Amino acid sequence: MRIAIAGNIGAGKTSLTKQLSKSLKYKPYYEDVIANPYLDDFYNHMERWSFNLQIYFLNSRFKQLVAIDKVNENVIQDRTIYEDAFIFAPNLNSMGLMTQRDYDNYLSLFDTMLNLVKPPDLLVYLQSSIPNLVNKIHKRGRDYEKTISIEYLSRLNERYEAWITNYNSGNLLKVNVDDLDFVENKTDYETILELIKKEL
Q1: CB environment 37-65: b (16+ within 10 A), e (fewer)
Q2: Coil, strand or helix: which one is 169?
Q3: DSSP secondary structure string, 19-53?
Q4: pTM of the model
Q5: Is 195 helix (H, G, I), strand (E, B) or coil?
Q6: Which residue has the higher pLDDT, 145 or 111?
Q7: Mean pLDDT of 94-118
Q8: CA–CA separation, 66 and 193 (whole Å)
Q9: What CATH superfamily is the domain 2-199?
């Protein structure tokens, strides 16, 4: 069984992945943020580093899925390969921060990879408003995220909603997290846990 947690920057994917992996005894797979050599450069100069960053994430996510496919255990994944291709890369392209040539090259690579990986058994989408995302991003205080604009987050949110509306690759659970603090509030976390258990 593979659960994948999807959602915008600051929605709580990593925190929920950590908590669920303990409760469900699933092996967690996290997004490669700390080791990513392009992240700081990207947020300081998006146009120059957007293609490099997206290729790094795509490759990292693909390698993770190949590794997951080889293990015979239940896993939970922080962010999906779909989000790279359906949210972040097209957003950068539409903002003029990734050239059409680079974007076409990126999509071609993604299409090749997609034929070799399976979708998650359950996709959990953490739906959030922009004020909630901004609050969470400021609270965690990552230096490279200080320059993220509200416009950028809003564009991503629009793409997330469009993607989720058309998602048909497997079971989907949408959870609005605006009024839930599943990190600090045990009852809020158990509410989400029960929703996921029902889906499983």
Answers
A1: ebbeebbeebeebbbebbbbbbebbbebb
A2: coil
A3: HHHHHHTPEEE----TT-TTHHHHHH-HHHHHHHH
A4: 0.90
A5: helix
A6: 111
A7: 95
A8: 27
A9: P-loop containing nucleotide triphosphate hydrolases (3.40.50.300)
Rounded distance between C-alpha atoms, residue 142 and residue 145, angstroms: 5
Assess contact for 179 and 129: CB atoms under 8 A: no
Q: Spell out the SS3 assignment of 128-168.
A: CCHHHHHHHHHHHCCHHHCCCCHHHHHHHHHHHHHHHHCCC
pLDDT in tens, 23-39: 999 999 998 766 788 98
Q: Provide, rounded to the nearest whole percent, the portion of the chain with pLDDT above 90.
A: 72
Q: What is the pLDDT of residue 148?
A: 72
Token pair listed for 19? 């908590």
Active site residues: 78
Pairing of strands 75-78, 122-127: unpaired
In the predicted model, what is the mean pLDDT of residues 51-75?
Answer: 93
**Which residue bears the tokens 């915008």?**
8
Length of the chain: 200
Predicted local distance difference test score (pLDDT) of residue 33: 67
- Number of helical H runs and strand E runs in the chain: 9, 5
Listed by start position, the domains of the chain span 2-199
* Confidence grade of residue 15 (pLDDT, cut at 50, 70, 90): very high
